[in-house]
C-alpha cells in the first residue's frame, strides 16, 4: 500500500518538525453560483472526504501555521481567516489509522484547532499534494460523508458564521467586489439556512447604509440587467463594530 | 526554593499523566456588588497574578478537563462553561520558567485553550491548592498585572462575553435568581464597558419579554424597595436562539 509507505517515511520527520498533540483543520468557504461551498479533500488511503489540515511547527505561532496550511492548499494567503473552536475529544482522529504502528505520527491523539476561511471563489487555485488524490469545492447542501469528526468541525464553523454575520465582514469576504442584491440575499440565506422575504431583506440591508449602488449594471441574460452594488467599507466596518442590528 | 522542588517533583508525574503541548486556562466571571469580577490566583514563585488553569489527562476529553479544573478551583461543576479561544503564540508561557531545567514539564511550550465560566458569586468556594498561595475575586475595573499572556486571555474572554450577550444565557448565569432592574443594567454596563441610558435600557429589556416581575420587592435600605425580577427561562432561551435583537 503506497500511502502507508509515504506516511511511515514522513513520520520521523513529523516528530522532529512539529509540536505533538496539536493539529489544525480549515473550513474554507466560498460563494459560487448562488451556493455556499466548502473546500474538501480526499486523502490517499481514505474512502471519505475531509477538510484540509496540517500541523504546527516547533518554531511557529499557531496562527501562522494556519496561514501556511491555507496557502499550501489555495495558493494564496490573502484570505480572511478566523479561529473558531478547538476539538479535543478522545479518539476523534486516532481510529483512522488503526492498522498502523502505534509510533506513527498520524496515529497519535490530536486535538485540532478549527479555523474558518472566507475565500473569493475566483481567487483560489486548488492544490493536490502528495497526501491527497482530490481537492474540490462542494456545495454545503450536498456534502459527502466526512472522515473522522470533520462533519462536526464543519457544522460548528457554519454555526459560527451565522453567529458572526452581524459583527464580522463575512459578506465582504465571500462576494466579489461587485454583486447584485439577489446574490447578497442568497448568501445570507445560505449562511442562515432559511429563506428570507425579498422585500424585508432589501429594506433591512439598505437601512444599514453599508452598500454603494454602482453606476453600472450586470450585463447579459434575458431579463432587465440587475443593479450592481459594492460594500462601502468604511461604513460597513463601523456598522460591524456596533453589530449590524444596532447596539445596546 | 520550596516551589521549585514541588514543580520538579511533579514534573515526571505530569509527563506521564497529561498530553503534551496543551494547557487550559479559565476566565471565571461572577457579578458581585454591581461589579463584574474575575477569579485570579497567585502561583507560588510568581510575583504576578494569573488565571486558574491546568492540563489534559491522556484519557480525558478536553471539555472534561476544563470541567475538572473548574471544579478543583471553585468546588462546583454546576457552572456555565464555554470554550472561547486557543492561544498559540511562541513563548507565551515558557519564559516564566527560565531558571529551570529544560526537561521540566512546566517549561515546555504550551498552547492554551481558553474557557470562560459564569459563576453565581455565592455558589463558589475558592480553593487554594499546593501550587498557589492565593485565590481571589478581583473587579475587572481594577485588575492587577497578570503573568504570561493572561491579560490577553482575559481581554479576549470579555470581548467574547460582549459578542455573545445576545445569544448566550449570560445574564441568567451571572445573576442570582432574583434581581432588580438596576442590577441587570449594571451587569450589561460592565460587560459592554459603557454607560447605558436607564430609560432606553428598561424599554429594550422589557420589550424582549424575557423577564418575570415578581410579587415581592427587595427589603432593606432607605429608599423605596425596588421591584424584583427573574428570567422567564423558556422565553429567554427562545429569544437567545433568535438573537435578542430579532433575527433576519
From TrEMBL, chains A, B:
Domain Nudix hydrolase: residue ranges: 21-162
Keyword vocabulary terms for this entry: Hydrolase
Native source species: Flavobacterium cupreum
PROSITE patterns membership: NUDIX
Protein name (database record): NUDIX hydrolase
Top-rank taxon, per record: Bacteria
A molecular function GO annotation: hydrolase activity
Alphabetical list of Pfam families matching this protein: NUDIX (PF00293), WHD_NrtR (PF21906)
